């Protein structure tokens, strides 16, 4: 999003709260493997990727740049986090 560089280093949820129009309808996606309502949901807005906990919708989502999100996903796929 324009101006997002100014928010680098700040709490991701703070960036979200001040950059996204609260009335904007977002398309949230979750894994097909998600069961029991304990899921991570992902939405995109411009060049930002938003992450939220499906059971805590009152908490502002975390916001990451597309580059940050792609680096995270690549790390997960490469096994960098020891998730088995």
Task: Explain this structure.
The protein has one domain. 25% of the residues lie in helices and 19% in strands. The chain contains two helices and three strands; from the N terminus they run αβββα. A three-stranded antiparallel β-sheet has the order 1-2-3. Strand 1 and strand 2 form a beta hairpin. The longest helix is centred in the C-terminal third of the chain and has 13 residues. The radius of gyration is 14 Å and the shape is globular. It comes from Actinoplanes missouriensis (strain ATCC 14538 / DSM 43046 / CBS 188.64 / JCM 3121 / NBRC 102363 / NCIMB 12654 / NRRL B-3342 / UNCC 431). InterPro entries: DUF397. It holds the Pfam family DUF397.
Short précis:
Helices cover 25% and strands 19% of the residues. It has two helices and three strands, in the order H-E-E-E-H. Strands 1-2-3 form a three-stranded antiparallel beta sheet.
């Amino acid at each position: 999003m324009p101006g997002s560089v100014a928010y680098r280093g700040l709490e991701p949820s703070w960036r979200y709260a001040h950059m996204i129009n609260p009335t904007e309808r977002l398309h949230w996606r979750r894994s097909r493997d998600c069961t029991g309502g304990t899921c991570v949901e992902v939405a995109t807005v411009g060049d930002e990727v938003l992450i939220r906990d499906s059971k805590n919708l009152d908490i502002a989502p975390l916001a990451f740049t597309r580059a940050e999100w792609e680096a995270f996903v690549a790390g997960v796929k490469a096994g960098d986090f020891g998730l088995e």
